[in-house]
Q: What sequence folds into this?
């Protein structure tokens, strides 16, 4: 039930936004994330954006994963 | 899709699994609290890839599964009231109550509608001013703010035909109850990433601080889960148990302040009954007095007989991590996703459903 998926914000109109999820565009509520702007990726849960995905943190995690995996496979 | 595909990279996954195997020196029991994690772990075959010493137990993190029979009966009773429309997430309609389900009530003529969002339920209320729309509020901290937001919106619009049956539950209090019961000895807990997106990391810090158990907040893709398992094993092997966050792209320490504000604007904490676990203080949410006009429990006189558990179903034990689906004599032969006996087989994220669909190994 806590399923939530990343969605790209195409446009913002007051407390609503048009977001793209896997090619489909739909309207979602921004009542829980008023800071959202076009171009952000948000986490979408039951028609509401519940969190803005932090691009820098996403890259940091990927770098950490790369490092952990590489160390062990002897590629570093 | 961006932010999904990168976290499914097979080569990185292999590297992480090897690292976990090298770090893991002794048998440990880890619990994934959240049903979403259970599904991801089974669907991606993570259990089979981890070293045999790492045992994964599923926790009570499935809101539909932990809703007790008496509350299902309440929803069915409301569906049978004249002029009501029940709006609910899909998982709820097939959960057996004492002697019926919302689906059966619908077949008998009640107006029960599956909605994707409380926004849809509000729209039904706007379009049907002569009907009473009751949204079945099931869900943890992830979902409760969306239900609260709909109440705030209904209040602003002056809607007088929109009600909530609040069956919401909170995760940290039930984790404490599980740990205090000493029924299972856990070495580490994978904390629910999307609950933490709302609450932030802090409400889960007690796991390491008060119970000296390893803890990590995880996302839902395979690499997210492997990273959190790596963090847990490292904490266990180093003997330093402190909450780590493997899902920083979504979870901040302070959480979503706006969502928390709306949730507590509408709701206040209350004791709540969990299937298989019983009453847990401060683990539920009820509507505050100022929003009592939207409270289905106050607006309707709910007639219900004494609740009756389904004989033979061990969902309660499974929800506490004490038993696994294969320990249930109903599993697969009598109880399957087409003919579910208990809620853990109904919900898409129920442990029994996940074992049935993705084949958790037979450990009997």
A:
């Amino acid at each position: 039930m806590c399923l939530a998926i990343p969605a790209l914000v195409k446009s913002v109109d007051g407390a609503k936004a048009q977001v793209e999820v896997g090619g489909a565009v739909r309207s979602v509520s921004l009542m829980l994330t008023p800071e959202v702007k076009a171009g952000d990726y948000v986490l979408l849960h039951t028609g509401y954006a519940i969190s803005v995905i932090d691009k820098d943190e996403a890259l940091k995690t990927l770098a950490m994963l790369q490092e952990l995996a590489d160390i062990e496979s002897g590629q570093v | 899709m961006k932010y999904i595909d990168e976290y499914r990279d097979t080569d990185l996954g292999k590297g992480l699994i090897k690292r976990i195997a090298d770090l893991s020196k002794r048998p440990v029991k880890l619990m994934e609290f959240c049903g979403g994690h259970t599904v991801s772990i089974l669907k991606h075959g993570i259990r089979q890839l981890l070293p045999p010493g790492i045992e994964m137990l599923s926790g009570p993190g499935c809101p539909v599964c932990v809703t007790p029979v008496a509350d299902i009966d309440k929803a069915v009773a409301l569906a049978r009231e004249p002029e009501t429309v029940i709006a609910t997430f899909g998982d709820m309609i097939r959960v057996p109550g004492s002697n019926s389900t919302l689906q059966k009530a619908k077949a008998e003529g009640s107006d029960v509608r599956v909605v994707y969002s409380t926004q849809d339920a509000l729209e039904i209320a706007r379009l049907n001013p002569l009907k009473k729309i009751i949204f079945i509020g099931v869900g943890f901290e992830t979902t409760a703010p969306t239900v609260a937001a709909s109440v705030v919106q209904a209040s602003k619009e002056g809607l007088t035909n929109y009600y909530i049956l609040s069956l919401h539950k909170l995760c940290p209090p039930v984790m404490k109850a599980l740990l205090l019961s000493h029924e299972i000895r856990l070495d580490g807990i994978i904390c629910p990433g999307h609950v933490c997106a709302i609450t932030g990391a802090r409400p889960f810090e007690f796991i390491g601080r008060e119970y000296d158990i390893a803890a990590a907040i995880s996302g839902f893709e395979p690499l997210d889960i492997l990273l959190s398992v790596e963090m847990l094993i490292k904490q266990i092997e180093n003997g330093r148990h402190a909450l780590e966050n493997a899902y920083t792209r979504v979870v901040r320490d302070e959480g979503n302040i706006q969502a928390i504000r709306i949730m507590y604007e509408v709701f206040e904490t209350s004791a709540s009954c969990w299937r298989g676990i019983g009453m847990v203080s401060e683990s539920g949410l009820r509507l505050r007095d100022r929003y009592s006009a939207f409270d289905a429990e106050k607006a309707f006189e709910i007639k219900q007989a004494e609740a009756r558990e389904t004989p033979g179903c061990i969902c309660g034990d499974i929800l506490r991590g004490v038993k696994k689906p294969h320990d249930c004599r109903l599993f697969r032969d009598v109880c399957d996703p087409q003919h579910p006996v208990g809620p853990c087989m109904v919900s898409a994220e129920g442990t029994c459903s996940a074992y049935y669909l993705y084949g958790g190994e037979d450990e009997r």
